[in-house]
Write a structure and sequence with these properties.
- This is Integral membrane protein.
- This protein is mainly alpha-helical.
- The chain is 83% helix and 0% strand.
- The protein has 4 helices and no strands.
- α1 runs antiparallel to α2.
- The longest helix is centred in the N-terminal third of the chain and has 27 residues.
Length: 124
């Protein structure tokens, strides 16, 4: 395992911790009980690990430094996922709670990243 891989995995863990904290705080702000708030925290962390793992796989970091073509494809995929998430945020509407709106947005982003992972593996 190279130093780059160790650093990326460490980064994924730190970001997952931050996402879990944010998910917990949003759940508490929405009035969720203790168990439900921790459920949101766990889902936030899991989605973060999956999304960043998708980028890790798309860049093929397990094979060493990524090629410029792989970097471009990964950036394009993430930008498309962000566009889908922005649309989902807008469609969620202001009538739902803030936590629910962000949950819909995060779900849309994760689904778009999963589609990106399938497409990048099919295209090669």
């Amino acid at each position: 395992m190279s130093l780059l891989q160790v650093q990326v995995l460490g980064f994924i863990l730190v970001v997952a911790f931050i996402a879990a904290f944010a998910g917990h705080r949003l759940a508490v702000a929405d009035g969720a009980a203790g168990g439900k708030a921790w459920g949101w925290a766990g889902l936030s962390a899991a989605a973060t690990v999956v999304d960043l793992g998708t980028v890790y796989s798309a860049l093929e970091l397990s094979k060493g430094s990524p090629s410029p073509a792989r970097i471009g494809a990964a950036v394009l995929g993430v930008l498309c996922a962000v566009a889908v998430a922005v649309v989902a945020y807008g469609l969620a509407g202001a009538t739902v709670s803030r936590g629910c709106r962000w949950c819909v947005t995060a779900t849309a982003f994760s689904v778009a990243m999963s589609v990106f992972a399938v497409m990048i593996n099919l295209v090669g």
